[in-house]
Structure formats: structure tokens, C-alpha cells
Design brief:
Layout (H helix, E strand, L loop, with lengths): L5 E4 L2 E4 L17 H13 L8 H34 L3 H43 L10
Antiparallel strand pairs: 1-2
Length: 143
């Protein structure tokens, strides 16, 4: 499962854990996890329209839905923390709940940025796929 942790690279949040070592676009051995994921993402975004299939788009839509669900869960978790924090009367307990709130807020921000990245990629690939479908059949790439 490719969950958190998430790390910032050039203001883009990317997953830092990938286990697929059989990349077809270059060597993985010289790259760290984050650099590999960034390179993989750049590769996916540069795929020609001829290579994008319906099932690729469907898979990306499922990934988008999964991350949307994670954001909803994190928003619910944050709201629950906030309500508990406001109800707390003990000063010492309130200090540590504030620390917990910092972490929850960071996780929510990371999930949100990851969702935005997946959403942007989905819409970009969808745009390219639909543009390819609008081409006359003899101009479409054979796959």
C-alpha cells in the first residue's frame, strides 16, 4: 500500500515508497524513492495520446476516488480532534492535544495536496485521451 509518508519535491507532493523495480523507462537503482516517483510521474504525463487506454484512465479514476476518500476521513478526524480540544478543561491535557492537532493538520494538508496532484493528473490524461478519441479513425494511433 502506498500510504503516507508524503514529501515535498518542487512544491509537488509525491509518494516516497515505490517497490516496483522493473521500470521500462530507465534505471531505478540510481534514484531514491522520491526521485523515482517524480520521474515515474513525469513519464506518465509525457505518454503520447496513442498510449493512453480507457483502463489506464479508469485506474487513475479509482486512485482519485481512493485519495478523495482519504481526504474526507482526515477532515472528519480533524473536526473530531478540534471538538475534543475545545471541550478539554485540563491545561496539561490541552497542551498535548494541541501537539496532536499540529500533526493531524499536517496529515490533512499532505492528503489534500496528494489528492490535488492525482486529480490534476487524472484530468490531464483524460483531456489527452478525449482529444485522441476526437481524431478521425485513420489518424488515431493503433494500439
Amino acid at each position: 500500500m502506498y500510504g503516507l509518508p508524503v514529501k515535498i519535491i518542487r512544491k509537488t507532493y509525491v509518494l516516497t515508497k515505490l517497490t516496483n523495480k522493473s521500470a521500462t523507462f530507465g534505471d531505478r537503482d540510481d534514484l531514491s524513492g522520491a526521485a523515482y516517483v517524480e520521474r515515474l510521474r513525469d513519464h506518465l504525463l509525457t505518454i503520447d495520446a496513442q498510449d493512453i487506454q480507457y483502463f489506464d484512465l479508469k485506474q487513475l479514476a479509482e486512485i482519485q476516488a481512493r485519495y478523495r476518500n482519504r481526504v474526507r476521513v482526515m477532515v472528519h478526524h480533524y473536526r473530531r480532534w478540534r471538538a475534543d480540544y475545545e471541550r478539554e478543561q485540563d491545561r496539561i491535557e490541552k497542551v498535548y492535544r494541541a501537539y496532536e492537532g499540529i500533526f493531524v493538520r499536517r496529515q490533512l494538508a499532505d492528503c489534500w495536496q496528494l489528492y490535488l496532484t492525482v486529480n490534476r493528473d487524472y484530468h490531464e490524461l483524460r483531456r489527452v485521451y478525449l482529444a485522441n478519441l476526437r481524431q478521425p479513425p485513420h489518424r488515431r494511433a493503433v494500439s
